[in-house]
Amino acid sequence: MSVFPRKVRPGDHLVVDDRTGFTVWARDVVRETLTGFVVRRGRQDPRHPQEFLRTRADKQAVRDPRPPGTANYVGPLITTTTAAAAAGAQTLAIETNARYLSGDRVRIQLSDGNFHRTVVSSLNGTTGFDFINPLPDSVPSGAIVQNLSANAEVTYE
Predict the structure, then answer these.
(1) pTM across the whole model
(2) Fewer CB within 10 Å of terminal CB in the chain, N or C?
(3) Distance (Å, rounded) from C-alpha 52 to C-alpha 117?
(4) How far apart are CA 25 and CA 98, in angstroms?
């Protein structure tokens, strides 16, 4: 077929095939539904069978939707000393030793600001404890004592 047909057909006109670019008679073309192209009959691009498949409904609703609670994280158990302790001491007086156990890892703030790491060996009543490593420096009253083994858990309100 030539690019420009020479014959005249009454009641018909020429159009350009969108896929090939050739000039064809209007009665020989169809419009593709998916792309809207005007193409020669028999040359249209058929839809793939997978395009006709429909998915099943996916129920994604949550049975009991509730917003998450507010997290309260306290961190390591912190208390302060109630009396000063000299260098070399292995006993410390603190505000309370609640939640302290033998074998807990603790950090004691020294007078120079550094922390001394040690392990609790035994508890003295409700306001003191003994530890394994002697103090390398003095500890003032009101110094920070952290119990690293008694971390608070995350709780939700």
Answers:
(1) 0.51
(2) C
(3) 70
(4) 96
Sheet-wide strand order for 144-147: 77-80, 144-147, 105-109, 115-123, 128-131, 91-93
Residues 86 and 137 sit within 8 Å (Cβ to Cβ): no
Cα→Cα distances 5→8, 14, 24, Å? 8, 9, 8
| Domain residue limits, the chain | 14-45, 73-152
Of 111, 103, 82, the C-alpha closest to 94 is 82
**Beta bridge partners of residue 40, listed in sequence order:** 29
pLDDT digits (tens, 9 = 90+) for 18-62: 989 999 999 999 998 888 899 999 888 888 899 889 888 888 887
Instruction: Count the neighbouring beta carbons within 10 Å of the beta carbon of residue 17.
Output: 16
Q: Which of 145, 151, 107, 153 is nearest to 128 (CA)?
A: 145
Residue 107: how many other CB atoms lie within 10 Å: 16
Please state which CATH class domain 73-152 belongs to.
mainly beta
